[in-house]
Amino acid sequence: MGEVFSCDEQAPVIAELIKNMYKCFIERDLLELTINPLVLTTDKELIPLVVSVEVDENAVYRQAELFAMKDYSQMTKPERLTALCDFNESNYVRLSDGGNIGVVTNGAGMGLATCDLIEL
């Protein structure tokens, strides 16, 4: 079993982390900023192990350097084609795990409705 965690000791560090996360969220036009897990080491140091961000695609002109870092190798071929063709916030949804049929949509509602119709 680990030691009992005292929030009082880490409060200033956590406050600074939250302040910096908020600053990053606003300055970088983020839709999501997640740290999970945030680890407390045996030396009482807080380390974010996994950090994920989602940048608002409407801010591409302000955040060009972030969009240049997009790793297309982590996407499937249809997802890459959809992203590279710049279909104005379109999403590719594969209909089945083993199949080669998918739907390119521009919104969650339309995508769900289309998938529901195809499933019938």
Architecture overview:
- It is built from 4 helices and 6 strands.
- By secondary structure, it is an alpha+beta fold.
- It folds into 2 domains: 7-66; 71-119, no CATH class.
- It is elongated and about 55 Å long.
Uncertain runs with pLDDT below 50, 5 residues or more? none
The chain-level structural class is alpha+beta
Radius of gyration: 20 Å
Sum up the overall morphology in one term.
elongated
Largest sheet, in brief, is: 2 strands, antiparallel
For the largest beta sheet, what order do the strands appear in spatially? 1-4
Beta-strand content estimate? 15-25%
| Number of domain modules | 2
Average pLDDT metric: 82
Please, how many helices?
4
Name the helicity range: 25-40%
**What letter string, H or E per element, gives the SSE order?**
HEEEEHHEEH
Tally the beta strands. 6
* First and last CA, distance: 52 Å
Summarize the structure.
Helix content is 38%, strand content 21%.
Task: Explain the layout of strands and helices.
Layout: H1 7-27, E1 30-35, E2 38-40, E3 46-48, E4 51-55, H2 64-67, H3 77-84, E5 91-94, E6 102-105, H4 108-119
Antiparallel strand pairs: 1-4, 2-3, 5-6
Which descriptors would you attach to this protein?
120 residues; two-stranded antiparallel sheet; 2 domains; alpha+beta; 4 helices
